[in-house]
Sequence to fold (377 residues):
Amino acid sequence: MNDAIQTGDVRPTQTAELPQLSVIVPTFNERGNVATLFRRLETALAGVAFEVVFVDDNSPDRTWQVVRALARQDRRVRCIRRVGRRGLSGACIEGILASSAPYAAVIDADLQHDETQLSKMLKLLQGGDLDLVVGSRYVEGGSAESFNKQRAGASALATEVARRVLRVKIADPMSGFFMISRESFEQVAPQLSTQGFKILLDVIVTAGGRLRVKEIPYTFGSRLHGESKLDSMVALDFLGLVLAKLTNDIVSLRFLLFALVGSLGLIVHFVALYISLEVFDLEFPEAQATAALCAMTSNFVLNNFFTYRDQRLRGFGILRGLILFYLVCSVGLLANVGVAFSVYDQEPIWWLAGAAGALMGVVWNYAMSGLFVWRKR
Ligand code: GDD
Ligand code: MN
Fold:
């Protein structure tokens, strides 16, 4: 298919230096690891024309500076410094799409993956019978020695869910270590989720069985420097990916969380209303207004903490966001009541009208909050 693409007058003499493999390394606060990783890649890939693309999300420890220094010494090193964005999957996608070698590998910066497997993975792909080679902890010969009990359990559970619910066949779909042909990746890239960290799982599910995959064992080692960025909240990201893939991207975990927080807000509202009336002896209109304010505030805090954890507002941004959220919700309430009235007008069934209004309200609030309160910077 590449034959059809016009590239103009490219001189063939240049091709000898072109990379056959692009190694993508997502980094966040990995200052102490990147140089060591590069040296090890040099050794492991001796004789292979390769390049390394570090994709750094503007790390506070300035990992990108170290990468830039490396890149000035060696043209095989490239640095993508992303600002205003966070996320392992998004970084990997961007790195692969910013490179052009026929094969791309993803490997962590902290040396937990086994870079010595890369040349074997490349040979397997170059054989032409495979599209994807996965470094696997869960096939014979592989292991995850550095996992504690809790992490091992979580990993096993997620793997089981992926296999049963998403019908993924491989043993280690949670692996962050793999190599893929460019052609296969470019096909699925537009459908991938940039949120979260399960890029391999996403690639496999999105490709829907079209990929010829092989797993090769490796031992997931211990981190060299720094600490893991995956906290217990990644379970939410994982659930979100499962939901999105199951429903063809119709239902997002974000929307479900937003609606769930909204329902909790209803409880907060009633409790606050009761307290305002009974304990503080407020008049009904004041009590109702106080209760609404309490509910909106608690919704905002919960959404900021869970629903939009990847874009969490901080510092002064919280105040600004809160005021915008009040505004969005007030208009949402008008929309809610308006829709409920008109439904009731047509069909005087109270619960139907109520439900239609509530649905209108939550969809409005969700859409507008995404646009104005937690908008992507
Ligand atoms: N650019 C970017 N942005 N990189 C990130 C981000 C981010 O938001 N979060 C993490 N990284 C980078 C880290 O700097 C590291 O190089 C790599 O992604 C993996 O992150 P770790 O924090 O070391 O994750 P882990 O070791 O707990 O998890 C690894 O093992 C899992 C298998 O159990 C990762 O490889 C996971 O992808 C994998 O599923
Ligand atoms: Mn790690």
